[in-house]
């Protein structure tokens, strides 16, 4: 296949109207034409041969690639890097025709393994073509009969987009016409990868997939591909369009299956991957107390009838505040057992601190990142599943395998996901500060000094526990948890009826 080293692809296109500027070393130029007129860019021929994109990765031997065709707002890059096993080992090439979306790729380029080609459309031939792009959002905008803002566009316009009688670009609101370069993807793959490489190929290109697949089958380019994800668009106006071409499309699917490629879908905007459950799983020891997916909100009593109480700390994103609270409780003479529930983002950013904590305390998972409590459980199911998966990946990368989860909200799907990922759900008996109600107001609490707030905080905890066992949760981001911490331990050990124990002993 020859050397991988070579010069960069240079694409020269006349900028006529609507957008201009300088694009960085890994990008090409784009001409945004008049919203309502199709014009030909007379000097828009691609003047250089297809050559290899030089990677900063100097790895010798077989390499791993993720080809992201139809990249949109980099949602597939995000999902791949965060969830896919060993994704850090892959070089990513992303292709997108809409240069306005280029800023979404900014942070991903920094890893030296991600190469966005924008604007560059993948096709069955190399050249230039007019693309029809979605315009800016405006109040009351309806796209395909409902509020949507996709960004990007396609190479196969419908008649209402061509006519553009309403000036808005028809039903799909594609009122911007753009002359974009295209690349023969079959040739690009054969030129830029080798058969011994491991290539994951994702194709979501609004109808262009049919011509691309047809040429790749003819060129036997699928011999370069190890895994193929594709979203098919039979409604786009290609030669494979409509029911009259069912046989032709079925023949293409049969040819792909004969090559060993099953129908796998990858939809970054919906956070959906067909074989997701095979890619993402989480195991904990069989003897872990509690049952996967079960909500645990109480503890057993001791033999002499004392209610068991375990203290858990919800670690926020303020590492200084979290370290201060945990260190303060840890320095107390009573050596109180704790369970620390940590966000996946916190683990990634503070792995040494969490490892230090894990030498002494149980580490649980608090899902991915800090959401306002009332919103996290309102997400789409796919988004919530992705949040679980991303968090577990960050824990795994840091060497942790949590068994307990303290989710930012509870519903039936959270229970289902916890069971799927072998996690036991902890639900606190009382949380300080309280999540709901009006027990902490300006008049009753916040207007007072620290020495006056401490007894008020302790009284809230006392009344909240109400002599019941279970779990007392403290939020590390709330300063008064630190302020009251040692006074709280004095109360729990010396005054309250509780037996203070670890989370696992609480369940035993």
- Overall helicity: 25-40%
**What is the CA–CA distance across the termini?**
62 Å
Structural class: alpha/beta
| Global mean pLDDT | 86
Helix count from the secondary structure assignment? 17
Strand content: 15-25%
Q: Unreliable runs, pLDDT <50, ≥5 residues?
A: 1-57
| Main pleated sheet | 6 strands, parallel
| Shape, principal axes of CA atoms | elongated
> How many extended strands?
21
Please state the CA-atom Rg, rounded to the nearest Å.
Answer: 28 Å
Care to describe what's here?
The protein is α/β, with parallel strands linked by helices and 508 residues long. Helix content is 30%, strand content 17%. It has 17 helices and 21 strands. It has helices at 75-83, 106-109, 159-163, 185-192, 209-219, 246-258, 276-279, 319-330, 344-349, 351-358, 373-376, 381-397, 412-420, 442-446, 450-465, 479-494, 503-507; strands at 31-32, 64-69, 90-95, 114-117, 121-123, 127-133, 153-154, 176-184, 198-203, 227-230, 266-267, 272-273, 295-296, 308-314, 338-342, 362-365, 404-405, 424-426, 430-432, 470-475, 499-501. The strands form 5 sheets. Strands 14, 15, 16, 19, 20 and 21 form a 6-stranded parallel sheet that branches. Strands 1, 5, 6, 7 and 8 form a 5-stranded mixed sheet that branches. Strands 4-3-2-9-10 form a 5-stranded parallel sheet, with helices on one face. Helix 5 packs across helix 6, helix 8 runs parallel beside helix 16 (479-494) and helix 15 packs across helix 16 (479-494). It starts with 30 loop residues before the first strand and ends with a helix.
